[in-house]
Amino acid sequence: MASPKSPTRPTQQNPQPNFHDFLPAMAGNLGGEGLIGELCNGFELLMDREKGVITFESLRRNAAAVLGLGDLTDEDVRCMIKEGDFDCDGALNQMEFCVLMFRLSPDLMEASRCLVTEAIEEEFSGEKNQKSFEKIERTSSMATKVYIVYYSMYGHVEKLAQEIRKGAASVDGVEAKLWQVPETLQEDVLSKMSAPPKSDAPIITPNELAEADGFVFGFPTRFGMMAAQFKAFLDATGGLWRTQQLAGKPAGIFYSTGSQGGGQETTALTAITQLVHHGMIFVPIGYTFGAGMFEMENVKGGSPYGAGTFAGDGSRQPTELELEQAFHQGKYIAAISKKLKGPAAA
């Protein structure tokens, strides 16, 4: 499902309209001044409570609960709001206006709750809208799902993972999602190692791997092999191995090492055995990254096996070229995953 063009956002030269001027206009479009009280009930259901604003993530998560649709992607939300699949007349138009143009205004978030309660409940109950729900669910199930699953202690692998996700998501018809594997070290140990707090990427369980059509696995090296945390996660996939639920699915590998000669190739080589026992298809990037593979002027991580970086003493961060290679790997594997899934993903 193609993403519609982003609307023009207000600039600092064009201040937000006055809240009190906006309320009557919204109420008029929704059915009269009697709705002003309902508008003032609050739009907190769609808010990211931590940030205090509406984001696509909070809208996706909370709209799913409000509308009873199950998990939605950002793409689904964009279609709901921008393409008017549900024909919610003035309500959807005002919801779009509120979310896209006023999402930094707590007052308007609070004032617009009725757009997700009574107005939407009424408008979404008809036969036409039920077909729209089915269309979104059908489209979502047809998308190729690529999971970027990683372990990162100091953030180097995570930065590569984020670029890989962007690359995979740039392929039309592909849903890319970041996952972390569980940490095996205690908090006091991590603290003594000066490890920063984990990001908010969700923790994956072994059975959730079966949902994906393709993978990119990432980890730091430990003595030329993957970190124990990732190995422990793979050791827990015996149930998937027994039923061969991952067989035939493509997977790539990316990594971080402390120094040159520290495992940029051996880490990938020793990780391939995990894929083999699951019957997965290892997808190296080869030399498809082009001239970037032949960089000799500066230190560069990565190899034909996959994207990579050097952490050094921890202060070195992935370079622009290393991040570009990671983006390329995500896009490359996503395209292959889509082809292998077949026409349904087109």
TrEMBL record:
Group of enzyme by EC: oxidoreductase
Keyword Calcium found: yes
Keywords for this protein: Calcium, Metal-binding
GO cellular component: membrane
TM regions (residue ranges): none
InterPro entries associated with the record: EF-hand-dom_pair, EF_Hand_1_Ca_BS, EF_hand_dom, Flavodoxin/NO_synth, Flavoprotein-like_sf, Flavoprotein_WrbA-like, FMN_Rdtase-like_dom
Gene3D superfamilies, per the entry: 3.40.50.360, EF-hand
Positions of the Flavodoxin-like domain: 146-333
EC number(s) reported in the record: 1.6.5.2
Cofactor: FMN
UniProt KW Heme keyword: no
EF-hand domain span: 72-107
Record field: catalytic activity: a quinone + NADH + H(+) = a quinol + NAD(+); a quinone + NADPH + H(+) = a quinol + NADP(+)
GO molecular function: calcium ion binding; FMN binding; NAD(P)H dehydrogenase (quinone) activity
Stated family: Belongs to the WrbA family.
Protein name per Swiss-Prot or TrEMBL: NAD(P)H dehydrogenase (quinone)
